[in-house]
């Protein structure tokens, strides 16, 4: 931080899956996030994230997202070498204060606000392109069929059956229609751990653009909505999130028709990928599996209803808010 960005600060390590992240508290009290990227990470992927943040700042300056710091030479990426002589790329971002939404009471009171912010993010990213946007990412919903190889890692037989059911639904309903949907770069991970809440309970930030990918726009809505599905027959907070998104960035009927299966598909990814990765990395099991119980619950809820009937409910919710 000092060598590349001229910031003298105290460092505190933060939890992360692939990189090393540090909260840097500068002598003047300013807070920064210092990211040291995994040596195996393609530098283009880090540049992709930083370029997208710059795009959001330019297109919608009011969006509560981190701002990218520049080195003394004006670059967004620096380099450092570790004790094993491996080269790591480094970036520094403004730190957004507050608590993550996941640490709150666990209700869906912020659902509509999340929908509006996500719509603004997607509108600002529309037309944005980058060489790394087509990278292969296991959290890309369009690659869901590849998850069948991880099914043996799911120990619960009933849950494994639900995962297979929705993978079949993806193959039947979604896959043949993907090419006809609007595609763009999306955030792809609007989960409660990536949403910062201020002391007054309003949303103060959107963080972690590490799972960005070029995909159908509606996949971004499905990912966010999957974390807002409530108990009962209705969609609960997920419906309010979708309606709020639709009010700012209207979804077409083809997108709405696929939303129920796409919401379930995000939960399928969560269950299958985390089950597999928790076996590979048992020392990080708690962090990896943090979303798995909720995803399993949502899959069980969605399996009770015909996806076409859920899509009808979404259409009605969206009509009532226009």
Structural overview:
The strands form 3 sheets. The chain has a 5-stranded antiparallel sheet with strand order 1-2-3-5-4. It has a 3-stranded antiparallel sheet with strand order 6-8-9, with no helix packed on it. The protein has a two-stranded antiparallel sheet with strand order 7-10. It is α+β, with helices and mostly antiparallel strands and 322 residues long. 42% of the residues lie in helices and 15% in strands.
**Major sheet, described briefly?**
5 strands, antiparallel
pLDDT averaged over residues? 94
Q: How far is the N terminus from the C terminus?
A: 48 Å
Rounded Rg: 20 Å
Helix content: 40-55%
User: What is the N-to-C order of secondary-structure elements (H for helix, E for strand)?
Assistant: HEEEHEEEHHEEEEHHHHHH
Shape: globular
Side by side, the strands of the main sheet go: 1-2-3-5-4
Model regions low in confidence, pLDDT < 50 over at least 5 residues: none
Class based on secondary structure composition and strand pairing: alpha+beta
The count of strands amounts to 10
Beta-strand level of the residues, as a percent range?
5-15%
Helix count? 10
């Amino acid at each position: 931080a000092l060598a590349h960005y001229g910031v003298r600060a105290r460092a505190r390590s933060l939890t992360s899956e692939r990189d090393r992240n540090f909260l840097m508290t500068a002598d003047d009290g300013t807070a920064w996030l210092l990211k040291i990227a995994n040596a195996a990470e393609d530098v283009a992927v880090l540049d992709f994230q930083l370029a997208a943040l710059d795009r959001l700042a330019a297109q919608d300056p009011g969006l509560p997202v981190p701002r990218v710091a520049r080195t003394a030479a004006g670059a967004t990426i620096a380099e450092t070498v570790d004790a094993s002589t491996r080269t790591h790329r480094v970036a520094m971002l403004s730190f957004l204060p507050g608590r993550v939404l996941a640490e709150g009471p666990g209700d869906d009171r912020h659902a509509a606000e999340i929908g509006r912010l996500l719509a603004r993010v997607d509108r600002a990213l529309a037309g944005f392109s980058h060489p790394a946007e087509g990278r292969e990412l296991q959290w890309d919903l369009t690659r869901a069929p590849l998850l069948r190889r991880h099914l043996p890692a799911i120990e619960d037989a009933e849950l494994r059956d639900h995962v297979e059911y929705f993978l079949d639904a993806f193959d039947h309903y979604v896959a043949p229609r993907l090419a006809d949907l609007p595609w763009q770069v999306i955030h792809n991970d609007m989960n409660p751990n990536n949403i910062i809440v201020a002391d007054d309970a309003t949303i103060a930030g959107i963080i972690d653009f590490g799972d960005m990918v070029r995909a159908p726009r509606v996949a971004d809505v499905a990912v966010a909505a999957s974390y807002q599905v409530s108990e009962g027959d209705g969609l609960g907070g997920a419906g309010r999130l979708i309606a709020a998104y639709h009010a700012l960035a209207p979804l077409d009927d083809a997108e709405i028709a696929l939303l129920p299966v796409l919401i379930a598909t995000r939960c399928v990814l969560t269950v299958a990928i985390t089950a597999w990765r928790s076996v590979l990395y048992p020392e990080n099991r708690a962090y990896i599996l943090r979303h798995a119980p909720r995803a399993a619950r949502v899959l069980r809820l969605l399996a009770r209803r015909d996806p076409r009937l859920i899509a009808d409910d979404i259409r009605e919710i969206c009509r009532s808010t226009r």
